[in-house]
Amino acid sequence: MAGNSARRGAVRRSGTKKGAVVGSGGQRARGLRGKGPTPKAVDRTGHPAAERARRSRPTTRRNSRPRAATGSTELVAGRNSVLEALRARIPAKALLVAGRIDSDERLRDALKIATDTGLPVLEATRTDLDRLSGGAVHQGVALQLPAYDYAHPDDLLDTAREAGQTPLLLAMDGVTDPRNLGAVLRSVAAFSGHGVIVPERRAAGMTASAWKVSAGAASRVRVARVTNLTRALEDLKRAGCFVVGLDAGGEEEVSRFRLAGDPLVLVIGSEGKGLSRLVREACDTVVSIPMAGPTESLNAGVAAGIALYEVARRRG
């Protein structure tokens, strides 16, 4: 009879009795035991906040100075954009070309420049180019740029001192257009400046647009990136620099500025909002550019050029 444990050969094994088991052996008690406080987001592996903290964590340089985190690799997509970037001698890692692509004059010129300069030409699928370019129109061609190696503000001071010159730096507060950064780099190079400082957040970085507009100046003038611009300005003041903000309603006109011969950090704000409150408070003084016309503000690149020219003129 089915289920008759008395039949020959029928032996019930221990632990196979149906129904609830008395007691849990302490497993439920261990499950109810507290596991401590929830870790912070920056301490959780895989959390976006932890990844951002890892990327912004300072590294060690030759003299143990903190160094800004290196930006991500950028991709220039499209035949016209790629060709212009190659002609502008923007640093690149590789030229990516889709297989079985229809050739035209732009592509032939891009391939010739890459061959002449020793730039690797790699074949890629259109699917790979779609993924790498984020869905942008690439026309089967893309240029991979290396991450920019940002400096530390102290490196910019060292550059001036090694050249036996009085430091002249320019900081940008809230300027988000990379073309303005490129224009500022041209002005800094033209008037013997020693570097540009940009914040890490809500500010333009060294993109392909900045390289192109700089017209080669980016290869001669270094850019430092800092986590907190206000704190960086305070550090530069302790290093002996005089911090001068450039904003409307300044204490004096830039043409009458009397301390141009001292180590200087000129701070340029955005075209719309100007200097932020904390950055303005960190400045030793604020000067302005007098304007006779109805224009309320100048482009950041134009304002930087005027201020740098005036400092260079007074330094002789």
The percentage of residues in β strands lies in 15-25%
Total domain modules:
2
From the spread of the alpha carbons, the general shape counts as flat
Distance between the termini: 114 Å
Mean pLDDT: 81
Low-confidence stretches: 58-71
Strand order of the largest sheet: 9-8-7-12-10-13-11
Summarize the main sheet: 7 strands, parallel
**CATH C-level class of the largest domain:** Alpha Beta
Number of strands: 13
User: Helix-strand pattern, N to C?
Assistant: HHEEEHEHEHEHEHEHEHEEEHEH
CATH architecture of the largest domain: 3-Layer(aba) Sandwich
Q: If you consult CATH, what is the topology of the largest domain?
A: Alpha/beta knot
Detail the topology: elements first, then pairings.
Layout: H1 27-32, H2 48-56, E1 59-60, E2 66-67, E3 74-77, H3 79-87, E4 94-98, H4 105-117, E5 121-124, H5 126-132, E6 141-145, H6 153-162, E7 168-173, H7 178-190, E8 195-199, H8 208-214, E9 223-226, H9 229-238, E10 242-246, E11 252-253, E12 264-269, H10 277-282, E13 285-288, H11 300-315
Parallel strand pairs: 4-5, 7-8, 7-12, 8-9, 10-12, 10-13, 11-13
Antiparallel strand pairs: 1-2, 3-6, 4-6
Question: How would you briefly describe this protein structure?
Answer:
The chain has 316 residues and is α/β, with parallel strands linked by helices.
What does this protein structure show overall?
This protein is α/β, with parallel strands linked by helices and 316 residues long. The chain has two domains: 74-145, Ribosomal protein L30/S12 (60s Ribosomal Protein L30, Chain: A); 153-315, Alpha/beta knot. It contains eleven helices and 13 strands. The protein has helices at 27-32, 48-56, 79-87, 105-117, 126-132, 153-162, 178-190, 208-214, 229-238, 277-282, 300-315, and strands at residues 59-60, 66-67, 74-77, 94-98, 121-124, 141-145, 168-173, 195-199, 223-226, 242-246, 252-253, 264-269, 285-288. The strands form three sheets. It has a seven-stranded parallel sheet, with helices on both faces. Helix 4 links the parallel strand 4 and strand 5. Helix 3 (79-87) packs parallel to helix 4 (105-117). Mean pLDDT is 81; it is low at 58-71.
